[in-house]
Specification:
28% helix; 12-stranded mixed beta sheet; 10 helices; single chain; two-stranded antiparallel sheet; alpha/beta
């Protein structure tokens, strides 16, 4: 049996507690960190390239940095191995994200491969809606269970101002097609921005009166690239929450394994609302997700430092020993997951923008 590596990010790990209860060689609570949080959800970025230039994320569009440019994103084979190892460790839901995942030519194969992995119950995708109408049927046929489409404005000119593209009608048509095809879990992500779309709050609500989707209002997060923009546009999650409650929206009772979103419903509306409030107290207490970048780095937090390269354990000549090493590396890393993201201290770690990791 190969010895586990004793390094995490190149640092000796004597001080890291990896002594979780063991059962036939594997931890009993396989993916649990030192704060007793359990992880069943993996967000897998399949490319860091994005074709939109959202002004809070990639205002100048995707720029290939020379280091990244030398490497290729995870291959289908690497994805297969990664997802299989994470599934054996208790991951049941995988969200495919990016960059913009729909620009991967093999996205259908990626969806199918993740869906066919033993232990994976839900395959979700986050997209800006590019070519959604054309592609959604093949994604569903490949096994897609859940779809999130980012739509920051229902006004075509504001949509263009934010994203750099005049594709609102096309994106909405794609969303309708997903609903027509019977996809049950359809969400729309909208980041509320003080100087762009905050005045569309009521319009968004009116839209879901008859549209059976889950609308996610995401509080704008500061990254190292958007500091000025953030200060001009950040809307406090608590203010949105107060507006919803004043309009009769009622918070749903949280299930035990629910993630950090606060879910709201209203009997007069076909849709419901999720609030993602990363600056709220205790947001990180319900963290249930791990992230892998398109270059194969494990990120324990959206705003952590760097990520740990899992690629040395991936690739040709895969073997059980290699999978075991990968699994042990994930266990080691998990014990170093910080208690919270420290965003309220303006600490954005090494995250320049969220297209690096897929949000
Ligand atoms: N290209 C895909 C898309 O547009 O949905 C997936 C990647 S994108 C980074 C994922 C989500 O992150 C989008 O809903 C986007 O609005 C959100 N996002 C990006 N930067 C953000 C920020 N600074 N604060 C809050 N949400 C952000």
């Amino acid at each position: 049996m190969l010895q586990p590596p004793l390094l995490w990010k190149g640092v000796a790990v004597e001080n890291i507690n990896t002594s979780l209860p063991q059962k036939s060689g594997r931890p009993l609570h396989a993916l649990q960190d030192s704060y007793q949080r359990e992880f069943s959800y993996l967000r897998l970025s399949v490319t860091d390239v994005c074709n939109f230039s959202c002004n809070y994320c990639l205002p100048d569009g995707y720029q290939c940095d020379s280091e990244q440019g030398k490497q290729k994103p995870l291959s289908l084979e690497e994805i297969k191995q990664l997802v299989s190892v994470f599934a054996q460790k208790g991951i049941t839901k995988v969200r495919i994200t990016g960059g913009e995942p729909s620009i991967r030519k093999d996205l259908v194969e990626i969806i199918r491969c993740v869906k066919n992995t033993q232990g994976i119950e839900t395959v979700a995708l986050t997209t800006n809606g590019y070519k959604l109408t054309e592609n959604i049927q093949s994604w569903i046929e490949a096994g897609l269970d859940a779809l999130n489409v980012s739509i920051d404005s229902l006004d075509p000119s504001v949509f263009q101002m934010i994203t750099g593209h005049s594709r609102l009608q096309e994106t909405l048509a794609g969303l309708d097609r997903a609903l027509e095809l019977g996809l049950k879990k359809v969400k729309v992500n909208a980041v509320l921005l003080k100087t762009y779309n905050l005045n569309e709050f009521e319009r968004f609500l009116n839209w879901i009166k008859t549209t059976p989707i889950s609308l996610r209002f995401i509080e704008l997060m500061e990254t190292s690239d958007n500091r000025e923009y953030f200060h001009a546009n950040h809307v406090k999650g608590e203010d949105i929450q107060a507006r919803l409650e004043q309009s009769g929206w009622v918070q749903k009772i949280r299930s035990k394994n629910a993630g950090p979103a606060k879910e709201y419903e209203h009997s007069d509306f076909a849709g419901n609302i999720g609030l993602i409030m990363p600056y709220s107290k205790d947001f990180c207490k319900s963290c249930n997700r791990l992230r892998i970048s398109s270059m194969g780095k494990l990120h324990l937090c959206l705003f952590g430092e760097g990520g740990e390269d899992l690629r040395p354990y991936l690739g040709s000549g895969q073997s059980e020993e290699q999978d075991e090493l990968l699994s042990q590396q994930v266990d080691l890393g998990l014990q170093t997951k910080p208690e919270e993201h420290y965003l309220s201290d303006n600490n954005t770690g090494t995250t320049r923008h969220l297209a690096m990791l897929g949000g």
